[in-house]
Amino acid sequence: MYRLIGLLIAGGMVLGGMQPTPLGQTTPTVSGTVQQYLLTPHGEVEGLLLTDGITVRFPPHLSAALASTVKPSDAVTVVGFLVAATAEERAVKALTITNTATGQTVTDQPPAGRPLPPELRGLTLTPLTVRGTVARLNVNDRGDVDGFILSTGEQVKVRPHNGATVVMLLGQQPGTTVQASGYGTRNAFGTVVDADALTVGSQTIALRQSPRTGLTTLPDSFRCGGQAWRITR
Predict the structure, then answer these.
(1) CATH of the domain at 36
(2) What residues make up the domain containing 142?
(3) Of 35, 34, 38, nearest in space to 57 by CA
(4) Which of 29, 68, 126, 150 would suit a FRET pair with 183, their CA atoms being 20 to 30 Å apart?
């Protein structure tokens, strides 16, 4: 598992000391307004981005229930667990999400049946390329960087073990237009790409071994902010 260690600058944003708070520590109730849905590569709603920058994570098998309860611009109240907290980032794994205006609540619960096999789920994905400047990084339930949102609102997903590499690449050229290519989904909830390759300025790296890109390598170490950093496996 690649781990993000230290302080890295990406697109003018600072992400420092990102360490997950152990599950079991409840956070005070979070209230805010929904800016947009957070999506899986298959276009399922897996959480919310609030206008104050807090990200709220929720199981994607409850996508339909969440989308029918809460929509962008709605005010919500969230109860759950704080999974990441720095001066710049707060991520909450929600147990309940309540639409403040309607009083409707969606609650985390196990899936009713077995999910589709990965090979069948992959049939819904289409080749996509998105471009823009990075508005913010996203973190998952464990506090790992697992993607980012562009200024266009389009979302890019990366595997958590590539998170440090992505932050390093973005930090080398803050504010530069980013291009992400891979497979993903466009639907009524938004656009999301599961990135195979990422280009920042003139530099392109592969985020996975893929015949679609022909690119291969990820660095084991890099320099940022005058310091040397190592990605541990």
Answers:
(1) 2.40.50
(2) 120-224
(3) 38
(4) 68
